[in-house]
Every structure is written in C-alpha cells, then in structure tokens.
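Assess this today:

___
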Amino acid sequence: MSKKVEEWTVLSMLEWGTEFFENKNIPDPRHSIEWLLAETLDIKRLDLYLKFDRPLSPQELDTLRPMVKRRAQHEPLQYIIGYTDFMNTRISVNEQVLIPRIETEQLVEIILEKHQSEEELSALDVGTGSGCIPIALKMEQPNWEVSGIDISEGALSLARKNAEHNDTDVSFSKGDILNPTSISIQDPLDLIVSNPPYVKPEEKDILEPQVKDYEPAEALFFNDLEKMYNSIIEFAFQNLTKNGSLYLELHEKYSDQILALFDEQQWSAHVENDYDKKPRFIIAQKR
C-alpha cells in the first residue's frame, strides 16, 4: 500500500488488492480482497460495488493492512476473519478445526431432504470439528436430538461455543472412532454422519498452501482410509437402530474402495455425487 492514505478508495483498494494477491499466487484474488475489505468496513461484499468512491480512513487501513499481509502468506480467509457461513449458521473457525466446505453443506442438505418428514430423530456426528454439521441440522430440525464427538479438545471447545452462539442445544463429547469403547452411547441412534480425514499423506503436495500449511493435519490426512471407514461402519452397525442411516463424506478417488467395505447382508449402500458430479458421499441404511 504505497499510495498516500488519503488517496485510497474502495475501488482503488479492490484494484490494488486483486493485483497484489495475483502476484502472490493467491487463489481467487479478487474474492480475497473483497472479503477482507468488506470485513474491515463491516458491510456485505456486494455493497462494496455501491461505494466505489468511498475513501478509506487511516483507522480502516490500519485494520486492513495486517489482514492483507496474512492473506498474502496464503493463510485462509476464514482463519483471518475468524468465521465462515455454513448453510443457516455462522461458524467460528481457527487452526484447530477444518474449514467447512461446500461439499459438507451438500451432505447436510441430503440428510435434511431424506429425513424431512421425521419430527423426532437422534443423530451423531463423528469427528465433528467446528460442530457445523450437527448445529446446522439442529437449526433446521429443533426437535431432533443431535450430538457430536471429536478426539480434539480444542475442536470440542470451539464446537460448544458455536452451538451457544447459534442458540442451539447440541451436546459435544470426546471420543475416538478408532477406539469405540471411548464413545459413550446411551440409546441406539437413528442417524450417524461423518466427514473424517480422507486425504492420504502422500497427496499433501498437491494441495494448495492455504490448506496443507494451515488447516489441522489430523482433520485432513489419514494413511489407512479403509481402517478409518471400517471403524465408522462397524461403530454405526453396533449403535444404529434397525433401518438407521449412515452418511459419509469421502474422497472421490476412493469411493468404490470405501463402498466395498459395506457388507451387503448388513447394509444397503450407494454413492451419490456432489455438485461437481464427483462421487463424494456414501448413504447407507442398516438392514
């Protein structure tokens, strides 16, 4: 930002920021400066285009500068801002939780569509992270009994805060799906959902820096995907009601491999595509 302070306007900042982020190889450079500038001015991103000539005050520039610097180092926008919008919720995020993706929103939408007629239902999110899945479910279905488990105390603390901020009654507890005895289930569940770590460690180098260098490795990577998904499937079979449902998000490269883990005598299971037509979800019903 080499111009004199009094010369900066919304438009000039958008133009400068876009070029600056392009030179730093930041994904979606225009989107990045729009988001940071809108956050600084406490307005919606679209409203920036109604305020092109608005000058930026020295205080606003002081707020914006460190955020631009952090983004230039490929830090995710959501960590810089401290939150992301997920369906009908605002979810706080930090380096201890994975940033919710659009694919996970679609998973929640699938669940809500398939169970829209059920006024009462008990659901558990395995590996809940920020708590975005159970909180979004509870927002849409207040009568459902929804909970989440995670191995990370930091994630659980943030999930509880997110539930409180969204005024939802969701319970969170510590549990390790690879050690099912650590998970306390009082009554059989109607629904289990999980978006577990599904990237193999050897694939790390193909990820963008904003993902591999900032998001928690334990939420991204797992070297034995069959072990992870088998643990979830076995846990679900033991703890679902008859005809209970299991919803899984997965890597599109391994959908057939994971689908093959389901015993046809125990489950009716199939793969569904995400919005990009990639095999992203497994939906299974206990027989």
About this structure: DSSP finds eleven helices and nine strands in the chain. The two ends are 62 Å apart (CA to CA). The CA atoms of residues 197 and 219 lie 5 Å apart.
